[in-house]
Design goal:
By secondary structure, this protein is mainly alpha-helical. It is about 70% helix and about 5% strand.
């Protein structure tokens, strides 16, 4: 079992916030790497979106790592929370699709939309389960950020699909 798959499997039952942070870092790292590798293969009209997604994942990773190492949060991240995250939510996060050498813009946007939806739901669940404080605040912030990303991607998807490629 890969370390990432093991971390995702651990997201059931009682787990520490530290384990949650490690898992989210691993998932965001996988997404970051995927988007970086994808960017040079896609059309220029949506490349900037994929580059923005990679940068956002990198920002999330940095925030989670900072929280995981803050001396004032050592006790907080030991706190166990109940997490019943569904493995199916993470299948796209763990198994990045092979979109080929020249991915279709619509396929890229469809994948990114699904990933934003999964992240939004995941951060909502974690915010509900985490005690009040800076970690919960981060989960709420990221949930809201993912919601904004999803809305922006939906607009681009609509433009591409329904307006004939006006991305």
């Amino acid at each position: 079992m890969s370390p990432t798959r093991h971390r995702v499997a651990a997201l059931h039952g009682k787990i520490s916030i530290h384990e949650v942070l490690e898992t989210v870092i691993a998932l965001d790292t996988a997404a970051h790497d995927f988007y970086l590798k994808l960017a040079p293969k896609i059309s220029k009209r949506i490349r900037y979106l994929v580059e923005e997604l990679a940068a956002e994942e990198e920002q999330h990773i940095r925030k989670f790592k900072e929280l995981a190492t803050r001396p004032d949060l050592v006790e907080v991240i030991k706190t166990e929370i109940e997490c019943n995250c569904d493995d199916s939510q993470f299948s796209d996060a763990l198994h990045m699709p092979d979109l080929g050498e020249h991915p279709d813009d619509q396929d890229v946007l469809h994948f990114a939309l699904g990933r934003e939806q999964m992240a939004m739901e995941h951060y909502t669940e974690l915010a509900l389960k985490t005690p009040p404080g800076p970690i919960r605040d981060l989960f709420i912030y990221l949930r809201d950020e993912e919601t904004r990303h999803k809305i922006d991607l939906e607009k681009k998807y609509y433009e591409l699909v329904h307006r004939g490629g006006g991305v």
